[in-house]
Amino acid sequence: MAGAQGGWVLTATARSPTNIAVIKYWGKRDETLILPVNDSISVTLDPDHLSATTTVAVSPSFDRDRMWLNGTEISLSGGRFQNCLREIRQRARDVENKEKGIHIRKEDWEKLHVHIASYNNFPTAAGLASSAAGFACLVFTLAKLMNVSEDAAALSSIARQGSGSACRSLYGGFVKWVKGEAANGSDSIAVQLVDESYWNDLVVIIAVVSSRQKETSSTSGMRDSVVTSALLQHRAEVIVPSRILQMEEAIKNRNFGSFARLTCADSNQVINTVERWSQFEGAPQVAYTFDAGPNAVLIAPNREVASLLLQRLLFFFPPPPDTKLEGYMVGDTSILQEAG
Ligand code: ADP
Ligand code: DP6
Ligand code: CO
């Protein structure tokens, strides 16, 4: 390692947008490597509004790796940060900065420590995929600083080990995370379906209703689902593969009708609507239940509540013309036809 001894610092800064899944990643088959149970598709947002900006500095005067997130120091001891740092360090190459008189040799990187500072320009850990922007940006910036030559696909596979959704933020436009088959995760990578100019009249509106940190992290939420939900396997094996094909077709054809139908079907907003309403002080209790598939069965205790619930649902989810919303009463088996 050559250079003006003692005081030199070399930095790299990058910015990565978040992405919003339209066919969701939910459930892991490998918790350490972060390998998903299904493919997913997302749209990458523009970085002016929802992005992470990360600076990584390296200096011989740093005695350990450290990180600050939104100005507060956080621990790097978790496996996810360590895995990303290790994978990038392994691929580090010679770096020469003539201006500063610095020459870092490939093998020096193992002894050098980094200081990382990252800021999100949107709420962190509040359900807006800060982990996606954050880990994509961390991996990209480390790779820049350490002169890593890997392409975006290889970097996506490293970002995935920080947070699954992060692999999709290495590309703009519409991106698919292919779940892959290999046990070591080598083929679990992001691929760009179309770039950001392809369907550029689409507008994504983010309504930040609450910027509070969510009570259940994505990681533990999906872990619980894998353990407790018998439907998750059916979703991963039957429902999502067909939705992925239809979604790719909708994006290719810029077919908004089909895109919207699939996006809504894959989301769980009905559950949230019902749950929030039921938690509200004084609100009537209602129940929901799902069979395999997106169709919600809602149960209200009486006609008054049923009518309120229907009004609310129709307000939030106006049905397409051919949809039939039906209310059934619980009762005896009714005789539809008298024995003739
Ligand atoms: P979100 O819905 O925001 O993605 P998660 O629970 O999935 O919430 O992830 C939140 C975690 O992501 C944070 O606790 C932190 O570990 C990580 N994270 C968020 N922003 C960044 C960032 N800019 N750089 C690195 N890691 C980040
Ligand atoms: C609902 O990528 O945050 O946003 O891999 O455990 O870090 P970890 O989870 P994360 O989960 C994202 C879940 C989701 C759907 C999606 O982005 O596909
Ligand atoms: Co996340």
UniProtKB/TrEMBL annotation:
EC number: 4.1.1.33
UniProt keyword NAD, yes or no: no
Gene Ontology process terms (BP): isopentenyl diphosphate biosynthetic process, mevalonate pathway; sterol biosynthetic process
InterPro entries on file: GHMP_kinase_C_sf, Mev_decarb, Mev_diP_decarb, MVD-like_N, Mvd1_C, Ribosomal_Su5_D2-typ_SF, Ribsml_uS5_D2-typ_fold_subgr
Gene3D superfamilies the record matches: 3.30.230.10, GHMP kinase, C-terminal domain
Annotated GO CC locations: cytosol
Stored Pfam families: MDD_C, MVD-like_N
Top-rank taxon: Eukaryota
Every Diphosphomevalonate decarboxylase-like N-terminal domain range: 17-190
UniProt keyword Lipid biosynthesis present: yes
Mvd1 C-terminal domain boundaries: 204-269
Keywords: ATP-binding, Lipid biosynthesis, Lipid metabolism, Lyase, Nucleotide-binding, Steroid biosynthesis, Steroid metabolism, Sterol biosynthesis, Sterol metabolism
Catalyzed reaction equations: (R)-5-diphosphomevalonate + ATP = isopentenyl diphosphate + ADP + phosphate + CO2
Recorded GO MF terms: ATP binding; diphosphomevalonate decarboxylase activity
UniProt cross-references to SUPFAM superfamilies, sorted A to Z: GHMP Kinase, C-terminal domain (SSF55060), Ribosomal protein S5 domain 2-like (SSF54211)
Family of the protein in this entry: Belongs to the diphosphomevalonate decarboxylase family.
Known function: Performs the first committed step in the biosynthesis of isoprene-containing compounds such as sterols and terpenoids.
Classification via PANTHER family: DIPHOSPHOMEVALONATE DECARBOXYLASE (PTHR10977:SF3)
Name of the molecule in the record: Diphosphomevalonate decarboxylase
